[in-house]
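Page 42, continued from yesterday. The earlier attempt failed because a stray header line got pasted into the input along with the sequence. Redoing it now with the clean sequence only.
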Amino acid sequence: MIELAEAMDTSNTKGAPLPGHVLEAVLDVWGQAGEQHFIPITGNSMLPLIRDGDHVLVAHGCAGLRRGDVVVFRHEGRLIAHRVLCIYDGDARPTFVTKGDNAPQFDSPLSADEIVGRVLAVERGSRYMPLDTAAWRVLGWLMAVSTLAWTKLYGWSRDLKQRLLGPQPNRLTAFLRQSALAFFSLVLKVVQAVVCRWKDNVLS
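This time it went through. Structure tokens are written below.
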């Protein structure tokens, strides 16, 4: 996970969660102010887009969130930045499904109350890369859709294998599984490479 260290107290131990009441108080003040804030990043779960040591500019609230956007949310006293893969409209408020681009698993579904805000830009040293553009939001959408497609197709192939060939593994099923994994991993890597090259061109 990518944890966002508390920007107003850099003396905290790296990776250590803030006391809940301190985190909530800071977020409440920031939310009421309706401003945007830069927050330092630690971790590698959003590679290649966001690196350890980058700062992200966060706009507080859920207004205008779309599939593919990178959001900051609360988790066990920490703030985490991951990509939105799905938004489900519930009876009361929407539910968000998120995942880090470089993380192996999906996050638990999030409520709107857990979302701190949307990442508008990435700052690396003196370089600045806005994400709140049409091109970057399209790339984010492609990342989200390709991740979901890989997950669904992998699950479908696994179910089909069990129905046709039974639960016991054999050479054929192992080959098919590895081929499917290699293909969809390649698709994801191509999309990530496009994002990384575009990002490097902007930040260079």
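Notes: Residues 5-16 have pLDDT under 50 and may be disordered.
Reminder to self: strip header lines before submitting.
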